[in-house]
Amino acid sequence: MSKKESSFFLYIKSWEKEIPTDWINIIIAKALNYCVYNESLVIKGYLLTKKRLCLIVINESHSIKHILNVFAKEVAKDIYTYENSFGKYMKVLEGSNTFKELFIQYPLYNQYIIKLITGKKIILPYKNPHVTRLEKMIHDYNYCSAIDYSGAIGPVIVQTH
């Protein structure tokens, strides 16, 4: 399979209301790292907010659909572990399309977000309040690849070169 870059949003479905945000962040970071180690996923950029995950990835060995299903199964396992609610999330784990149970996927078209979470500067000949707000927002998030591009080490494995 050839390398293919994909950019998309994953909106977290209603399960985010059942688990504290700090735990959701840990669950998602852990699942992303699992995919990096076990599915050859290359993460170029990410931003994890309360209700969505922005991702820019390169999949080298599997289709993105396969990787997202593996990712969702890892998320479901950790939700199950956190919730310890056998009936509800065990059914999600056993389902054929775990991903659709947990997330809604949309394309990521916002070039400003893409640039900021992949360590690139946005240079405009004018002041854009939208870009200023995005820069501040991304600077303030602990779960964002901008950390890695600044030279620090973030919670998700990012390939910065």
What this model shows, in words?
It is a single chain. It is globular, with a radius of gyration of 16 Å. With 161 residues, the chain is α+β, with helices and mostly antiparallel strands. Strands 2-3-1-4 form a 4-stranded antiparallel beta sheet. The longest helix has 20 residues, at 64-83. It is built from 7 helices and 4 strands. The protein has helices at 21-39, 64-83, 86-94, 98-102, 111-117, 129-140, 146-149, and strands spanning 4-12, 41-48, 52-59, 103-107. The chain has one domain (4-149): Alpha-Beta Plaits (2-Layer Sandwich), CATH 3.30.70. A hairpin with a 3-residue loop joins strand 2 and strand 3.
Short synopsis of the structure:
It is built from seven helices and four strands. It is an alpha+beta fold and 161 residues long.
Number of domains: 1
Helix/strand order: EHEEHHHEHHH
Q: What is the helix fraction of residues, given as a range?
A: 40-55%
Order the strands across the largest sheet as they lie in space.
2-3-1-4
| Uncertain spans | none
Strand content: 15-25%
Mean pLDDT: 87
Structural class: alpha+beta
CATH fold-level name: Alpha-Beta Plaits
Please summarize the sheet with the most strands: 4 strands, antiparallel
SS field, number of helical segments = 7
How many individual β-strands?
A: 4
Q: Tell me what the CATH architecture is.
A: 2-Layer Sandwich
Based on CA inertia axes, which overall geometry fits? globular
CATH class category? Alpha Beta
Radius of gyration from the alpha-carbon trace, in angstroms: 16 Å
CA-to-CA gap between the ends? 21 Å
